[in-house]
Amino acid sequence: MVKQLTVISGKGGTGKTTFTSSFAALAENAVIADCDVDAADMHLILQPEISEIHNFFGLDVASINKELCTACGICVSSCRFDAIDSNQVVDTYKCEGCGVCEHVCPEDAVSMIAKKAGEYYCSNTRFGPLVHAKLGIGEEASGKLVSDVRRRASELAEQSGKDLIVIDGPPGTGCAVIAAITGTDLVLVVTEPTKSGVHDLERVVQVAQHFRIPVAVCINKYDINKRLSVSICEYCKDNNIPVLGMLPYDNIVIEAMIAGSSVVEYSGAKFSEGIRSVWNSLVSILFQEEKEDIIRLIQKSEK
Predict the structure, then answer these.
(1) Do residues 22 and 263 lie in contact, with contact meaning Cβ atoms separated by under 8 Å?
(2) Is residue 62 a contact partner of residue 102, using CB atoms and an 8 Å limit?
(3) Would strands 110-113 and 61-64 be described as parallel, antiparallel, or unpaired?
């Protein structure tokens, strides 16, 4: 059975992609999925060669047939999003695809049509398959695109015999995050000791726990505010959440990014060793249940 690990952060800038790209380098038999579709950046490090391009269609938008339209204005007054102007021209960026205009039009001049909202890709990288995406400017339905990325990643994992999918999730707690974590085996929250970091850590943990997904935490840049780092550890202890690592602020992360490399590739320094330690802990958690099942089967067969 293919295991799935999602790395999330609650907020941007905590170092989520720094860790995920290093996990991609350390994983021996994995598919990587970049589900931060609004601001994807994993490709900057993994330097993929695209092998498949798929169109993504988000929300349907209204289209008005001018040959049938009598300019009665009912669609204009009925649209709560002001997506149709007085000349019966639809602003596709304002249209929410609700279909009210189509429903109220007495001439059947309005129809809802599919609109391309982005693309998702299957690529080859030096670490194995990567599924990633690009959401169009001003487009919505990022959660739906995340689901498409995860679905394709699962198909690739099954087809190529991979045992793990490593998912770089989006920041925040919205629909895209829910789509990135639902049904996964483990969520790693990368946080930082700042007021916003602590606040958003608590929020994203609540989301994961709501969906009954096991959670682990890693504190990045712990030494910029050791008092808050202690508070994070206490919060995790009170909520039975394992803290898998506390890594210091290190300029080596910036150097690796500039070089287009994951941190563990770029250097074997202390920071890299910290990431390796976190990775080893994640692997132990993910595959421990599987190992226990194998041991039970062996014991049963020996009786």
Answers:
(1) yes
(2) yes
(3) antiparallel
The residue among 101, 171, 182, 119 whose CA lies nearest residue 147 is: 182
Of 99, 151, 143, give the one whose Cα is nearest residue 118: 143
Residue 145 has what pLDDT? 93
pLDDT for 289: 58
Task: Say if residues 118 and 35 touch (Cβ distance below 8 Å).
Answer: no
Cα R_g (the chain), whole angstroms = 23
Please enumerate in sequence order all residues whose Cβ is within 8 A of that of 255, keeping only pairs 6 or more positions apart, or say none. Answer: 266, 267
Nearest to 279 by CA among 10, 20, 14: 20
Contact between 152 and 35 under an 8 Å Cβ cutoff? The reply is no
* pTM beyond 0.85, yes or no: yes
> How many C-alpha atoms does 303 have within 13 Å on its Cβ side?
6
Contact 38, 122 (CB under 8 A): no
For the domain spanning 3-56+124-299, the CATH number is 3.40.50.300
Give the residue carrying structure tokens 């062996």.
298
Domain boundaries, the chain: 3-56+124-299, 59-113
Alpha-carbon distance of 141 to 58, in angstroms, equals: 6
- Report how far apart, in Å, the C-alpha atoms of 121 and of each of 150, 182, 247, 266 are: 11, 21, 33, 26
3-state secondary structure of 33: strand
